[in-house]
Design brief:
The structure is a homodimer of 426-residue chains. Chain A has 426 residues and is an alpha/beta fold. Chain A is 45% helix and 16% strand. Strand 13 of chain A pairs parallel with strand 14 of chain B, so a sheet runs across the interface. Chains A, B: Keywords: Amino-acid biosynthesis, Coiled coil, Histidine biosynthesis, Metal-binding, NAD, Oxidoreductase, Zinc.
Amino acid sequence: MRIIKVTEEVSLARDVDTGNETQQASVDNILAQVREEGDQALKKLTEQFDGAALENLLVTKEEMDDAYNEVDDEVLEALRQAALNIREFHERQTRQSWMVTKEDGTMLGQKIIPLDSVGVYVPGGKASYPSTIMMNVIPAQVAGVENIVMTSPPDKNGNLNPAVLVTAAELGVKTIVKAGGAQAVAALAYGTETVPKVDKIVGPGNIFVALAKRAVFGQVDIDMIAGPSEVVVLADERARPEYIAADLLSQAEHDEMASAVLVTPSETLAQMTASEIERQVKELPRKDIAEASIKDYGAIYLTETMEEAIAAVNKLAPEHLEILTLNPHDQLGKIKHAGAIFLGQYSPEPVGDYFAGPNHVLPTNGTARFSSPLNVDDFTKKSSIISYSKEAFHRDAAHITALARLEGLEAHARSIDIRTEGKKSE
Amino acid sequence: MRIIKVTEEVSLARDVDTGNETQQASVDNILAQVREEGDQALKKLTEQFDGAALENLLVTKEEMDDAYNEVDDEVLEALRQAALNIREFHERQTRQSWMVTKEDGTMLGQKIIPLDSVGVYVPGGKASYPSTIMMNVIPAQVAGVENIVMTSPPDKNGNLNPAVLVTAAELGVKTIVKAGGAQAVAALAYGTETVPKVDKIVGPGNIFVALAKRAVFGQVDIDMIAGPSEVVVLADERARPEYIAADLLSQAEHDEMASAVLVTPSETLAQMTASEIERQVKELPRKDIAEASIKDYGAIYLTETMEEAIAAVNKLAPEHLEILTLNPHDQLGKIKHAGAIFLGQYSPEPVGDYFAGPNHVLPTNGTARFSSPLNVDDFTKKSSIISYSKEAFHRDAAHITALARLEGLEAHARSIDIRTEGKKSE
């Protein structure tokens, strides 16, 4: 991996695929079909894209039960413990509606309630993604969302991956639609005879899913459109290069666009880590992907001091940040921009990806400057409450009309005046 | 105003102007110019669009001081009291970072911190919008945002409206840029020699501002792109038709696309309100706008029962909801979708637009189903914290590798294994 002395700007920003005109036209066409023809279009498109001729768009109770036979006890136990941890962490994020009551009789407040319904997109293909299901479904459940609709593309035989079904069953997801791509997003956004319309769509997907989410945004809410994944390791000379190399490679194996970066003031560590990466990468099943990622988007940034290294991290604003220094808590207060911060040598990123409790849906591509991990707030909404008393109204009426007239909005002022006219004439 | 018996679907959704290709091309061109040429482009474009040849892009301290001579004491007093109320309400929304420490040495938490910098766009033109400044700046200040940059288009003489300057001065805004349109958004998103780059851009604007915000989204965060304004009044036979008419008209005067709707089970009230609107609208300075809005987007929905009326309100999911019933608090629990809820006859919408404290930047066009009023959370972001102990790590390692391998991510598993190898060989 290249070692670069940090002198000026560093950035993780990569040009993300935003689709071409052909893809956009295809998505628009699919959205229109599902909107107009509902289930019929959904079945037709699933046959076309996934090769599955479905009679029933929904997963049955029997399919859910049968899936348990296909999943190892060891995996089931791990899934259950992970779900417990994730639920516990997200339960600490819940908030209550609140109000202030004033002596003049006024009441002001915020009503905070869950969204009515949420759709969770789960990618299909050969790999299964139980962790995606947990990280998207559990925060919605903790928020109190009553209707959760999951959707995932079936294989050619019309089946979903057993681990996906078991994870959904463990979480209590009842409605699972066998559909993927833009057609699944369309079904969630518009509703069909079988698929309930939702208020928000979350979950990762390919470019067609991303384009479809963008297209229906406004009609429904969506989560962020994730870019390629990234990790930055901030380390001093005490850190172990073989750990750092393993952690960087765990990011690099995701895809060729993934970015794995070490920032350190230690030249020795920089060189040892570079060697370790060369050694470890050769043994990986996803070696080709990891090598491409390391070559194109990997880097070791060498700084003069730890302060400079921290400044570089804040400029990078990584999705994942590991701090591998003698006392990692010392640096925590100085980190301003990172999606998730992993402290110390026993907190490699996979601990958070799967298990510890915090969400693995994180801001990518430098957006940690202004975005947050997926969390319970994302599945709630607020309404302001304003209950003015007669006393407060008459006290403030002149101020309100002064401001309305300053802005040239006379009818605003009159909706106040009409209520004070009686008083004026007294 | 037309009286419609509610039988089926009701909706507030209007087709919002999303710009045409010429406008998009113009915005793209402006963004590129400002990105490449900075201040020089900003001055050139301000001369071109606003007719102002500026030497200095920033408002000076002297201009701020002079503006006070142009603002009435009555207005100043109203501004100050409104700012106090808005600040007090938003201060109740602040949140602390939190953590959980477990007996095994693990620490998990959420670090919640303000954004570094925020840009606030303030529309120009003949009217001045002090309330826009307060509603956008104060939540950012309360969140703890250190750098707030305001921008607003100057008049032909290069001046900003005195009320705008005084409001900014009262709030302590130091950096005010004389620029509007897409060029102002570009300056905030990319930074120029004079204008600091920000992390988030908020505030309303015309179609060019909206297109520019959409274009820079991802590079920076943006607030929602506001649609036309709307109010729904939910009333029973006890409500006063002249109040309702005045309140509906205060919304209708905003613009021709604004929507003002009464939902009631009382036919008498429906008819009396319709007459009152006819009477009151004639006396308004912005009569033409209000009449067009009432004709195209106004409606009185008549229901059989109050329950049906509430169901209709939840379908409409209005930006503003006034509840004018005998005991408005009785209905509050049943309202699921509304940006701001105004209870009782002394809480007409302008009380909230200007003064009470809650934010007037609200979800429009039915998006209250899933969006919230602008609030302090919008100016903060979260980072997850994961600090696993050696004990916890070894306890959970097998679970984590089981899940990683289930998803086919071998390098993830190895970043765990490399840390347990020593233990295994013990």
